[in-house]
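REQUEST
  id: r-88c1
  op: predict_structure
  target: Phosphoinositide phospholipase C
  payload:
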Amino acid sequence: MKIEAFKIKMLNLLTKKDEVYKAEPPLDLKEAFSKFARGGNRMNKGQLLQFIVEHQGENICSEEDLDKIIEKYLLVGSCSSSSKTRCTRIPDVYKKQGLSLSDFIDFLLQHDFNAALNDEVHHDMNAPLSHYFMYTGHNSYLTGNQLTSESSDEPIIEALKQGVRVIELDLWPSKSPTKDGIKVVHGRTFTTPVPVRTCLQSIKKYAFYKSDYPVILTLEDHLKPKHQDKFAEMASEILGEMLYFPQTDSLTEFPSPESLRNRIIISTKPPKEYQQSDSICKRKAVSNGFEPPEEESWGLELSDSVAKLKTGDKRNASDADRENINTSDNIPNQLGVCRYKHLITIQGGKAKGSMKDQLKDDIKVRRLSLSEKKLKSASESHGADLIRFTQKNILRVFPKGERVKSSNFRPHLGWMYGAQMVAFNMQGHGKSLRLMQGMFRANGGCGYVKKPEFIIRTLPHDEVFDPKKPLPVKEILKVKVYKGDGWSLDFSPTHFDRFSPPDFYTKVCIVGVPGDCVKKKTSVKVDTWHPVWDEEFKFELRVPELALLRIEVKDKDKGKDDFAGQTCLPVSELRQGFRSVPLFDPKGRKFKSVKLLMRFKIETLDKL
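RESPONSE
  id: r-88c1
  status: 200
  body:
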């Protein structure tokens, strides 16, 4: 009986392998082809140009421009259709007899030409840093879990290659007899360390591999003054001209991403040791070979505690204050603190005091760090204060301590309240990280996404945006899933099922503010590597600016359905028309060939 069953399954596999070529093209594609080919069976240059301009909304002015794009497409050789022979002949038939319906569909599947997103930076990059969401990592040096994994520069390199702009380093004194005396490690755990020099060298090499907008190093500093001095010296030596020296330590507004292109900036809490006056600090630092660029002033201020001691009022100054200032042996420490403090562009710190006090507006701008737990609690009682704080200051949100396996939380928890730095474990692959990757595919993948205006600005009557408040529908998004392609090229014949082709279906979901979240899916297409669904879904969106379109393809199984590809796209960036949508593996690496052919339509209703 088992042998007979095996023979039947093998017969089914052999007889169904060519089913792809019998599938009828989706009706929309046939109608579009017929319309622009004017009822003919071939689409010539002029007709293809008209289709691209009128239907796809592309800004192409002439057939000559189209020729250049087609030639570029031929040189790139990006075809990944199931029929590579047909696909690579598109430029030839385009020039001679024109495209057939089959050629036209293959052409639409080309991601280089029909991408769903704009691949260029197009947001205004001249606003203060506080007006942007930033692609942010958490414990960027860890290769695995938060307790026992190794520390390395490899995760940092990979993050920078993916476009991450905020890298976190935990700095600790090193007991090993190295010349630097500083290590990067997750303190008070069993994780292994990596030398800070190694990390800085890799950051210098890969900082602008993906994007030339600024890299921010958030430092969790556990160093003594002499080590802070050493870090300042080392950072200046290794990073060189890339390292940005702030003009003052009393910023009332952050600089813009545009003004910081190809620069690396430091964000950490100010050193505990109090500072000397600007002139003394600068003179001592210069005499020790640590001089910032001439056009940038030091701007270091005399602290209140130092002022009290100098004027003789020692009653309210701590013993540590007196020791740091009055002990002659501490002069090198003071110099080291001066040099270290001068590196800090974004002054940061963790939450202290009541939430109301932490979110108070101040003349100086700063960065506040909250755990996801504290943010969730604060959002329930101080939602408006959070948004007002992030209009001028920077809020960093990091995973709760219980996430020892380096998992992540839903990033909208931070984005809804304007948090610029939603810090993620980039090794913690899962749905949450896919949402993060989706958000930062926006704006050409440069790692900075301009926040919606309603989060940046105060609304009429001194109100601020409330993500929990019932809102009217602002946009209607229509998503049509036509077909999928490329699995037979990227997967082995038996990857999904030993004896038959896969049974694919597609999940289409919106993730955003609570009122926008919804899940839908297509029907299952049985026994085919080349599914044609031709199904449309409609989504009513209240806050499309924060909405993400999550797409996942699975193979239906009796037990757990098999993963077959995923992607996530920012709704506000979707290009309308027929679009090729490449899919990624669970870790966010793009498949060579697997993609969907989809259509996006957006209807804007009355504004909020």
